[in-house]
Structures are given as C-alpha cells and as structure tokens.
C-alpha cells in the first residue's frame, strides 16, 4: 500500500509550485545563447515594455556562490549565474523577469537579447580543449583514489583467456514529472521556500550562505517531490535569485522552469567511457580485472567518479585495478542520476563478462555463479549479506533460462522476430546517513513521526508508516509521517538509496524509546490512547541515529546542512545491495525494431520493508534501464554549445507501449549486521545491470555486440 495514494490521486498532495499565495507574482528566466564566453551587453528594454512586467534583473551583487555540494558546499554546482559576466555554458541564466502573470514573464524573458564575446568550447570527452585529469591527483580523497589489489595487469597478461573491450555511455538527463521550480515568500525576515527537493537541509543552509542571512531565517517545505533521481539533490541556481527578487518586490514569487531549461539548469548523467579488461582461466574463472574510466565533468567543478567501487566488488577476482579520470568540458556541472556510476559501469562490465562467457563457451548464468564470492575483493572484509547467487538462481528459474539455446541468432518468435535472452547482475553500495527521529503519541491514539527523509515518489512515507503501524499494532491510518520539511527536522539529503536504511533504524529506535515513555512493554501491540491517558499528556521522544561506525560528528555536520554519510565499507564488513536481471528481446527482422516483451528481476535489498512500493521501485529501475539501453541520449550541439534534444518529444523516455511484462521478486533476507531493521537500499540497484541485460540479449538475438548506448534501429540493421 501507499499511504499518500489518496492525497496524490485526488490532487490534495501539494507540490512546490502548486502553492498559490496571496499577491504572488511570476518569474521566468532568459538563458545564454553562446557555448562559452563573456556577456558584453544585455538589452532588457523590450522586456521592460511588456505589460505586467514588474522587475527585470541581470545581476545580483548581493549573492555569493552556493559552493559545490561535493566540495563541502550546497549547490549542484559552485557557479551562481548572474553574479558576473562569465558564461560557462550555453543555457546559463542571464536574466530573471518577474511579472503579474506567467505569460507576461515568459514573453518578457524571450524579448531579452544579449551580445557576447564568444570563446571556444568543448563538449565531448575527446574534444579538442577538453582537459583530462587523473581523479586521485585532482581530488586527493582516499575513496576516490585508484584501486590496486594485486598486479591485475600482469595476471591478465598471463591468463589463458583475455577480454579487452571499450564501451561508451552518452550523457543522459533526468526528466522528472515535476519540473524544477517552486514558490518563495518572505514572512518578515524569514525566507520560506516551497520547492521539490531531495535535500531541504542544503537548500536552507545554502540559501542562508548565498543571501548572507541566518539559517534560522530559512524554512524549506518539500513534503512531496515529483521525482528527483539526483537532479534535486542540492541547491539549484534559480532559487537564490528568486529569493532576491521576492525580497525586492515584497511579494511571493513563483518560478517553474520550462522542460528545455531544466536540461541546462540542473545536473545530468555525464558521458563516460569504460575500458574493461578481464583475465580468466579456460573455465571462465575470472582471475583479474581492470576497469579504466573517463567521465565528463564541468570546467568549474570536479564531479566525482565512483565506477570502480562497484565493479571492483562484483566477482571474486584476486587482482583488480580501477583508474578513473575526469574530463573537463563546457557544460553545467553533471551529477547524480539514478545509479549514476553503477548503471554505466555495469553496462560495460557485464557485457565484457558476457563476452567472456561466449569466449569460453559457458552459460552466462553458470559463469557468474562460478565467480561469486563472500569476501570483498578490495578490502578483504566479508559482505554483511550477498545473495546475488540466489538472485541468479531464482531469476533463472522464474524466467525459464534452461530453455535457452546458447547459439546467437538461433531463437525465433512466432512472427519471425529474432529472440535474444540476456542476463546481467548489478550491485549498489550500502549507504546510511545520520538522522534524527521525533515521535509523538497523542491523546487520540495517533502517532506522528518526523524524521530525515524526502518523499519523491519512491514511497518512504509508506515505508515509515508501515514500520510504526506494525510495531505498535495500530492502523496505518493512525500514523502521520512528516518528511522534507526543515521546520520539523534536519532533513539531510535523501539519495544514494540510503533513505530506508537511514529513516527506518532511526524510527525503530524512536519506537523503543516511545514505549519506555508510554510505560508499555518492549514488544507487542499498544493501545496508544490508553497509554497516553495514563501518562496524562501527549508523549514526545526524539532520538539520534548513526550508521555503523559513525560518530556524533556526523550529526553535527548534518545539522549545518552538510553530508553525513557512511558506507559501503564499515568496521568489519562491507554492505552492498544486489540484483539479477533476465531480459527477452525481440528484433523484428525487416525493421530491426527491438522490443522487450518480458523481464524478470530478482533483488537482494535485505528485508523488504514495503512490498508494494519496493516492487514498484524495481519496475521503475528496469524501465529506465530499458530506456538507457534502447532510447536515451542527450545530444550536444557542437556549433552553438549546450544540449540539443531538450524536450520530451526529442529526448525519448520509455512509455507504456514500450513496457511489457516485468516480474519482480525479492530474496527478502534481513541484513541485521547493517542495521537492526535489516533493510538495505533498493531504489538504485533496481536499474543497475538492466541496460547490460538488454544489450546481452540483443547480442544473443543478433550475434552483434554493441559498445555504445543507446542501441537504436540504425545500429542493429
Ligand atoms: Mo540519487 S542519483 O543518489 O539521488
């Protein structure tokens, strides 16, 4: 069940830009039309002449930069547009217009013209002018360093079977249903921001920094988010200027970016290139692997690459080398997008493993099972849980894998289509954030839970409500969950699939504390109203919760808007979530159109906390994996800069007609070493390996190996 389903389907759930406030004005942005350069003149006269225009601003001297979220700051990028004349990328805002109506604001923004002194720009990994940096030299943090376990190159050199394959992954953009934007208002000296975000806390502290005001005077309300996928994980560049114009006008102001504007004013999945080398014995036992990655970043920030962290853990090799480089290009700073490193890495690595299976003539499921391990190859520590073998075995059973003819191009559907069956596994780090949970038991028997978390459609509110209802034996309708609101809690970033593993242990320990204060037993059903009546007043408890090995310092960081995350390496163990995908593709022989009639995905996410929303998460991840494999790519414009296909007409995502049967199952074995509730992450691992399984299925159908995504009709013909 989904506790907020009623609110959502009846339109009662209010998203940021749904707020309608008295006296509200409307803003629109004008964007730079040059790939890089200096802004020499902005002509706003035509904009000011549009009836209903209240304000046109091109420069905000009072704003400082938000700092880069991965460098101790709060912004998706360090660069704050409209603070100087430097244009770092096409699509960077150069003016903001406020008017009485959205139509007037948009008309005025479009009437703004500008002159530039253009500079050369680079958009591709291999473009002239792109600058390549070795990550461990550019960002000296231990978890970003090259990985060297044993002498992988030498082992590969001496292996009986060698695979050496390079794969390219294009830039992709998240296109959440809820566009970036919202409403800001000043209540006296207090700035109130209503905007969909995964990180209300960063917005609060980042805006305080940018505007030079006290964080106590910033409130961020984000009870519902219409999809985040990483793009809403930090402070976006439109919010501080919006707050500034609202303050100048003394009115609330709403701004909703057009879809095409979100392609340049939010992070995206950067382009990456992967060279995978495997060395194996004649049976396909992988002895060593090397994974070398080049990943795009912006000129002004170093967005980190963490691809080798997952591929280094996939199989039981005795030697592994991972090297990552960052390539600076003239774009806004890229960032996290669902399974940001894991999905591209697995597309590459799991195809190389498929190549190995083919080379040694071994079934791809068997080969993967033969390379399973209980020990983390990188640290030598045990995994707290790793049931990927069970995922493979159960998935093979449910899919009917034993009916596969290993010969590529050997299977046909009734309509003559080539049939391909592909498999791939995926993993995702087990992360956790420090959190605070406040539980209140009321005289009417209702329980209210306020905890760090953001509801972006993944179902965290349902997951928390279910835990409380089951623990106390009360109806789920008697539980109110408050998340995404800085006035009720810290609201640390919800991302990296740590939401459930962060909120549930905090709420679990809050429930134990609540029971003590209600003078009831440690377990069993509770008559909350009666217990509260005995106490004589509503009972409130607040608990602080840390991940394994985390210290109170993490909470102190979280309380000032910074990241407070631990994992996947903990004292004495390593935690990952696991998945296996089985995919059937049909390649129509004359048009070469690829369809995906069925998928079976089996996940190990520890205990399944909320079956309905969990299955939905996996379906969403698989659908996105199919989209990544067959459709999605953001094209860059080498003539004028920026991204070209920045609309839903031109950036094709999967729609209902593309999606057929997706069967989801779970191993559902709790991981109590990771946390007392036994839950691991699920949202992102769902997608990891799905694109690889599609690509492997296409190879099985056609005999052709695709080294670049997406795999479109023209590549199959
Ligand atoms: Mo997610 S890409 O970690 O918000």
From TrEMBL:
Residues 10-120 form the Aldehyde oxidase/xanthine dehydrogenase a/b hammerhead domain. Its EC number is 1.17.1.4. Pfam families: Ald_Xan_dh_C, MoCoBD_1, MoCoBD_2. Transmembrane segments: none annotated. GO terms for molecular function: iron ion binding; xanthine dehydrogenase activity. Keywords: Molybdenum, Oxidoreductase. This is Xanthine dehydrogenase YagR molybdenum-binding subunit. It comes from Kutzneria kofuensis.
């Amino acid at each position: 069940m989904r506790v907020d389903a009623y609110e959502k389907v009846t339109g009662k759930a209010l998203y940021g830009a749904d707020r309608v406030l008295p006296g509200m004005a409307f803003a629109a942005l004008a964007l730079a039309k040059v790939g890089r350069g200096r802004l020499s003149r902005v002509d706003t006269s035509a904009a000011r002449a549009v009836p209903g225009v209240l304000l046109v601003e091109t420069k905000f001297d009072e704003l400082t930069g938000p700092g880069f979220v991965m460098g101790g700051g709060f912004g998706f990028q360090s660069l704050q547009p409209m603070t100087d004349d430097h244009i770092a990328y096409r699509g960077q805002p150069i003016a903001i217009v406020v008017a009485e109506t959205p139509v007037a604001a948009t008309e005025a923004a479009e009437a703004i013209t500008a002159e530039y002194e253009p500079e050369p720009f680079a958009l591709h990994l291999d473009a002239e002018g792109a600058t390549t940096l070795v990550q461990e030299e550019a960002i000296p943090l231990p978890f970003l360093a090259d990985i060297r376990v044993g002498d992988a190159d030498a082992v590969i050199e001496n292996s009986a079977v060698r695979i050496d394959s390079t794969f390219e992954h294009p830039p992709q953009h998240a296109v959440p249903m809820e566009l970036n934007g919202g409403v800001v208002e000043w209540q006296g000296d207090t700035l109130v921001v209503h905007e969909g975000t995964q990180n209300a806390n960063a917005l609060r502290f980042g805006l305080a920094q940018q505007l030079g005001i006290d964080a106590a005077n910033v409130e961020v309300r984000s009870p519902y988010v219409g999809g985040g996928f990483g793009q809403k994980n930090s402070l976006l560049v439109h919010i501080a200027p919006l707050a500034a114009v609202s303050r100048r006008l003394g009115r609330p102001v709403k701004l909703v970016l057009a879809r095409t504007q979100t392609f340049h004013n939010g992070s995206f999945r950067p382009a990456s290139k992967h060279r995978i080398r495997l060395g194996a014995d004649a049976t396909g036992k992988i002895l060593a692997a090397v994974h070398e990655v080049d990943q795009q970043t912006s000129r002004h920030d170093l967005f980190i690459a963490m691809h080798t962290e997952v591929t280094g853990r996939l199989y039981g090799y005795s030697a592994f080398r991972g090297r990552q480089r960052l390539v600076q290009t003239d774009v806004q700073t890229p960032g996290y997008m669902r399974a940001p490193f894991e999905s591209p890495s697995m597309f590459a690595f799991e195809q190389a493993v498929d190549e190995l299976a083919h080379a040694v003539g071994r079934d791809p499921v068997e080969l993967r099972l033969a390379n399973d391990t209980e020990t983390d190859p990188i640290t030598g520590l045990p995994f707290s849980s790793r049931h990927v073998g069970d995922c493979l075995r159960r998935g093979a059973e449910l899919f009917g894998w034993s009916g596969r003819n290993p010969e590529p191009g050997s299977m046909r559907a009734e309509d003559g289509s080539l049939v391909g069956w592909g498999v791939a596994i995926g993993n995702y780090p087990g992360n956790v954030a420090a959190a605070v949970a406040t539980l209140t038991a009321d005289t009417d028997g209702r329980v209210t839970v306020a905890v760090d978390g953001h509801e972006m459609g993944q179902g965290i509110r349902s997951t928390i409500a279910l835990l409380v209802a089951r623990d106390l034996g009360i109806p789920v309708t008697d539980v109110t969950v408050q998340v995404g609101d800085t006035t009720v809690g810290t609201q640390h970033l919800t991302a990296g699939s740590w939401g459930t593993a962060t909120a549930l242990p905090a709420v679990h320990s809050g429930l134990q504390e609540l029971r003590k204060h209600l003078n009831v037993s440690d377990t069993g059903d509770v008559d909350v109203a009666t217990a509260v009546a005995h106490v004589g007043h509503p009972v409130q408890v607040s608990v602080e919760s840390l991940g394994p090995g985390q210290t109170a310092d993490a909470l102190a960081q979280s309380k000032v808007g910074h990241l407070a995350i631990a994992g996947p390496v903990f004292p004495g163990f390593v935690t990952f979530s696991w998945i296996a995908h089985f995919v059937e593709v049909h390649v129509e022989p004359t048009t070469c159109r690829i369809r995906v009639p069925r998928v079976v995905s089996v996940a190990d996410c520890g205990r399944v906390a909320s079956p309905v929303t969990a299955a939905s998460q996996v379906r969403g991840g698989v659908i996105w994996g199919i989209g990544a494999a067959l459709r999605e790519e953001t094209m860059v414009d080498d003539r004028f800069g920026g991204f070209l296909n920045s609309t839903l007409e031109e950036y094709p995502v999967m729609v209902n007609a593309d999606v057929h049967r997706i069967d989801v199952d779970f191993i559902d074995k709790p991981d109590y070493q990771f946390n007392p509730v036994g839950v691991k992450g699920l949202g992102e691992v769902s997608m990891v390996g799905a694109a690889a399984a599609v690509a492997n299925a296409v190879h099985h159908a056609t005999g052709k190996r695709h080294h670049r995504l997406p795999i479109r009709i023209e590549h199959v013909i």
